[in-house]
Amino acid sequence: MARNFTPEEAVERYLEERKHDLSDSTLYNYKSNLGLFTDWCSYQSHIQYIGDLDQFDVSDFKMYKRDDVADATLYNAIMSLRTFLKWCESKGLLEGLSENIMLPDKGRASRVEKLDPEAADALLEYMGKYEYATYQHVAIALMWDAGLRIGAVRSLDVEDYHSAEAYVELHHRPGKGSIESLHKDRGTPLKNEEDSEREVNLHEWVVEIVDDYIDGPRGEVTDKVGRSPLLTTSQGRPARTTLRRHVRARTRPCFYTGECPVDREIESCEANSWANASDCPESVKPHSLRRGAITAWLNEGHSKELVSDRMDVSTDVIEEHYDQRTEGEKRQLRRELFEMEESD
């Protein structure tokens, strides 16, 4: 009879068995990719052992992470997961799961998608008129100005916001409780755990929005462990899925311009609803909003080292995944920084 392993224990055993067959870099990539999966499993109350997994769990994981990580990261994570599950099957921990996993399309994995500064300005201007100081307005303003991930925005408590000094603190608060507990504190973890903790300065226009939100529509609520979330809904701290859907819904061009760039009939469009906003080919996911923010900061002449510290991303990753500037844009920026005039 096969032994029972939790997802974390199975991954540890798998990596231990393969560490002599793989290079250090490949082993690191497997550990990182599979870590995304085990982190997700830890929040699923029905998954106690690796044998509890089924096809729907793999599909749910893929859909959950799709808006949370870069396309290439998702592709590599699913590839690593499939290889790991094959190993689990060889040990009798699972049956027939790996062969039915559908990988993300390779073209999608390399596709560049970001929110352009012009679109971000138009969106924020629209929200400033019609959704001013709502929690959705605050979330998108923080994501664009500070390049915060969804998880980081959601993690903020009121005490993390400092109006007079114009900055926010980010803290890794993973929560407590066992997998078996139906009421465990899932916490608000940050992507790189303690390494993601930092203080981020905010522009004055963002501070004004956050101040007016706190003084206005923000609900005075606390969560189950007594924390006071900065962003609140009628149910308390907004869920990550809720925040993702709001980003997808509000980055549809028809939302903030009243026009469709792909000539669809807006009223009858299948994406013309909050629940189906991700079906809009012109809306962007939160990660793409972050990519656009990082590129915008680079285009303004800020160094990669500064952007790296501000937005919790290494300079190597910036160069590989986030620096979407054309060579012409880089050249023009150098001209402006060196105050070189163009010849007539």
Automatic annotation (TrEMBL):
SUPFAM superfamilies: DNA breaking-rejoining enzymes (SSF56349). One of its GO terms (molecular function) is DNA binding. Keywords: DNA integration, DNA recombination, DNA-binding. GO terms for biological process: DNA integration; DNA recombination. Residues 5-89 form the Core-binding (CB) domain. CDD domains: DNA_BRE_C. Residues 110-335 form the Tyr recombinase domain. This is Integrase. It comes from Halorubrum halodurans.
